Amino acid sequence: MPTILIIDDEASIAEVMAEVLLDEGYATLTANHGREALALIATCRPDLMLLDLFMPEMSGLDVLAHMQHDAALALIPVVMMTAGSISDLDLSHKGVIQVMSKPFSLDELIATVRTLL
Q: For residue 112, what are the contacts with CB-CB under 8 A and spacing of at least 6?
């Protein structure tokens, strides 16, 4: 069973996403900020990460920067989630394989995960 790590500072959003993906047969982990996510990644290597770009304390870009310092972590595919505009950012070199604009539907979430895993 593939494991998906969901990182979002809005706990209710992360919980709903985790429940939906669990119902679809995926193992899920959630983190509400970047430091918590990095601690989880150190103990388990998820098959996919759903990472919010704009979070307090440590942004999604900060999480990606930390991951790039470890070759194994740099290989984890990342879906970046954001309510903001990222048109001027090139995230492909940081492991980001797709960007999802918030708000997105749960059907879109499921389809994205199915396609990538």
A: 79, 98, 100
**Residue type for position 47:** D
Separation of alpha carbons 76 and 95, rounded Å: 7
Coil, strand or helix: which one is 90? coil
What's the rounded Cα separation, in Å, for the pair 112 and 47? 14
> Which residues does residue 6 pair with via DSSP β-bridges, in sequence order?
30, 50
Task: Indicate the pTM of the whole model.
Answer: 0.92
Q: Which two tokens stand for residue 85?
A: 């505009």
Q: What is the pLDDT of residues 20-76, one digit of tens each?
A: 999 999 999 999 999 999 999 989 999 999 999 999 889 999 999 999 998 889 889
Which class would CATH give 3-116? Answer: alpha beta
Amino acid, single-letter form, for residue 69: H
* CA–CA gap between residue 27 and residue 6 (Å, rounded): 11
